[in-house]
Give the backbone structure.
Amino acid sequence: MSAAETRTARLAISSPDAAPLVEIDGLGRVFDLSKRWLNRVLDGSGKVMLTAVDGVSLSIERGGTYALVGESGSGKSTIAKMVVGLLPPTSGSVHIAGADIWAERNLTRQRQLRRRIQMIFQDPYASLNPRWRVGSILAEPIKAFGLAADAAAREARVGELLSLVGLDPRDAGKFPHEFSGGQRQRIAIARALASEPEFIVCDEPTSALDVSVQAQVLNLLRDLQERLGLTYLFISHNLAVVRHMATRVGVLYLGRLVEEAPARELFAAPKHPYTKMLLDAVPDIDMEGVERPSIAGEIPNPINPPPGCHFHPRCPHVMPQCRTVVPPSCAAGDAKVLCHLYDGADHAGTARSAP
Amino acid sequence: MTATLSVRNLRVEIPTRHGVLTAIDDLSFDIAPGEVLGVVGESGAGKSITGSAIIGLLDPPGRIAGGEILLGGERIDNLPPPAMRRVRGKRIGMIFQDPLTSLNPLYRIGDQLTQTILTHEKMTARAALDKAERLLVEVGIPAAGTRLSSYPHQFSGGMRQRVVIALALAADPELVVADEPTTALDVSVQAQVISLLKRLCKDRGASVMLITHDMGVIAETADRVCVLYAGRLAEIGKVRDVVKHPQHPYTHGLMTAIPSLKGDPDARLEQIPGSMPRLGAIPEGCAFNPRCGFRLERCRAERPAAYPTSRSEASCFLLDAAGRAPPPETATAARAAGIEVRAGAPTGADA
């Protein structure tokens, strides 16, 4: 409990200095899935564009954990890649501590900026080079950013990192295949910490792990946040994990942020019909024997999403304007909802009547 | 009543260059007619191998080295391949994790369904086609009549898994073995597929063996659950009992390690130290002993049998009424975790 209290206390302290660490504004990404030019001419087919991310804006405060949830094809990982600088956005901007990571042309400053952002990937079997010893894997970022004076200092730092994630400093001489999945994910976390970042993007960090090991990794991520004051962008499809980790949650549906709210509020009183549906669909060990309301439909093909609100074909509260007009972002308390139910003068009444 | 499926002291071995690995060790359980038995465990626990052994599709060099598997009272583990082929598909239906690999991409859905029906039942091609269409309607495929001539790639993931369910039920089997049927699907679709599977099997009175790593799915779907650890039975009992009052220290650890949608989100998750042993390095005695918080002396040397408690059966020496009393602090800690410590209690009654 004391850990939880310090967590909330620290958040309370850090919030008055206002400026969020990460600001994402109108972020969008379109992929061109067209066939080659000649094939298009021969088949008489047009260009095929897939809007993976559509005007996503959010901000993450220092020391907070912002979780993005959504089903496959919702654009979670595309956002992660644009935030860490692996994939250029089609529109919008990403500011980390006030600097636009995609507009920075000065290479030195760009490197400095990138040092502060790190990423942890989903599959620790794929994200560690099997031919490198753990020591070299961890030393790479230290070398790349010139963070240690000499080889001895680097080695000491590698040992320190390994102990930080609960491994033995002597493990530096081993290869990744000598470790279990959970231990590999610890190595991936240590590597992310090697460049002393402030902001870490965790893309499904526990999806490839077993439950008993998942708990170890989630606890480790929280402990590290306490100790090092890290800020996380946490991406997951598992709502129970998100509820356990996040201070603020954003729900994605076909590339649009349909709802974002403080974690407690989102789980206690979800507003968007899609969020409600998702929360109802999660199988939970405390829900044994409960009959669930059945859910209609599946996620539409993102190449050809429904017009208006993307969710309207599955929505139980669909109204005529949902089929044609893209809903604006409506503020409801501390939350933002992309839904016509919460828009306009009768918002209070409609919203309350929505089950 | 005879159990639909009865597994007795099953032992599965995998010979390798480095010696023989025991993937399943002395596993016994029954599935009653119409019952849904969940089989859970982490990766490497032997869930899928148990399923493969039952349907007679163990990947070589894996082999059944001991024990019996009885379907409706008849042994099926020693059937010659042609006889087993008649059982598989007819009396046991199968659903695998990835619907894209369990359907043949080169054949239309209708052809795959009618082929399965005609293999196991005597009827005309016309009647088989009608039955195929009825099956697709039952599993909730819109415009079933025209969809018969579609190829698997023309369906979405959830729809494909519905087709696989239709295939599994095509010959009205007594038992359906579903191995991670929803793992490849999104949550909103997962809920639909699970409720469909449950409803259809209930309607037909088929028993289900549901293999999954997702305790949430089990909690909502199964009647009883069997928890495996390192190829051995850790605990078996009614779902409610195992989830709410786990008796094996491993099951207890597992339940507290799962983040839930209820409870305090800021509370720390309980964690089980270490990870599941590899098959080549299963510890002496109880396989869980190096990770166990309530380890006794004998756990390092002897292997526990499944002992009954007032709720479930669990393989743990704390529950052995004939055993010596554990040290008081261990007993207190175990009782605090909800485990009915019986070792050392003179009557074997609850403490």
Notes: The mean pLDDT of chain B is 89. Chain B touches chain A through 47 residues (CB under 8 Å). The first strand of chain B starts at residue 5 and ends at 16. Residues 187-204 of chain B form the longest helix (18 residues).
